Fold:
Amino acid sequence: MNFLKKSQMKLRKQFYEDQIVDYDRQANLYKQEMKYFEALKLHKKCYEMACDLYGRYAIESLICLNNLGRTYADTGDYFHALDVALEVYHHTQDILSHRSQEFIVICYNLALSYHDVSDYQKALEMYKQCYDLSQTYYGLKNRDTLLYLYSLGMAYNDVGDYQKAYDMIHEAYHMQKSILGETDIDTLKSMKELGVIVNQLGYHQEAVNILENCYDMFKKYYGKVHNETISVYSCLGNLYLNLKEYAKAQEVLSDVYQIRKERLGQTHVYTLITLSDLSTVYYQIGEYQKSLELAKKAYITMKETYGEKYNHCLDMLQNYIRCLQKNNDIDKAIDFQDKLYLLKKEKYGYNDPKTLQSLHDLSYLYYAMGKNLIHVHINDNAPSQDCLLPGNGTMDYPRLLRQLKQQDYHGSFIIE
Structure:
């Protein structure tokens, strides 16, 4: 009887292990096809089966959880992905050797998660840890080490150190080209980022040449709808926008938006970022009503899906305010600008440059209203609630009154 029971347990264990491998393989195939929600379902099954088989904190289960976290990120659920990455990182520090590839991959996924939620300084620290560990134990010519070098360069770019970013990505690109070949996906990703940084350093035409060449190679070797092909195409569209080549920018970004909407869904962060970029194109060519419609749709969807404090949501709110102002809806622009100022003050602190810029923009809108003010509706608000009675929120009334006094306002006040 004991022999039979042991045989059954062994067969069950083998079945679970085979099923986990099969689910993981199928999930990765879905991810290659950008079917991220299908992949998410399978990675959830992998993790549940691993927990049942090995226990929640066994290394096999934590590796499955790590894969699940990155798939959350692929669907745009970045904050959930960060929670998962932190859990995996903390539980594996004492289990895995710091020289193991598995631990370095876990560190790398945590770095990616910090980047996805725009915590660029923490991302930089984790990318540096990955690169140092991989270089020490596996050497500079290792494929993963070069990936970490490229990622570290991107992190320096995110914190504004463009020259250091250029030096690192330039080194990674040429080593990848030599070792992996010029058509390898990692080589082309470094080429794309090199084009972005060259543009930031002021060499715009060289950046266009790099990105156009990179896009052609991605399209030729990986197909037009591959996620990395779309990524470089989007970069190219934004570069055309910055160079005021609006017809090209509109064509490219419209194409990117349709592909992302179809492949990723209407609420995915990349789809919404592209929609906001399209709004900017229409703004620049003078189609202000169309620009407003797209900006509003991008902002509201981003807010409902990811929350109003998410960095990209704050950017989209600023874009929406600009469109409101251009369409002469100054009252609404002021309301939203005040909301943006309060959100940034809560998120970054009063003395942060981003907060102070919002305060300056709010002052400008009051100034723009100028002599047209007849009466002022008074209410209060907080980052999570609108239309409160005065004194029940965070509205800075002394600042408002000083601004109105500067404008020589003598109208009435109406409490809402």
The first helix runs from residue 2 to 32. The mean pLDDT is 89. The longest strand covers residues 375-378.
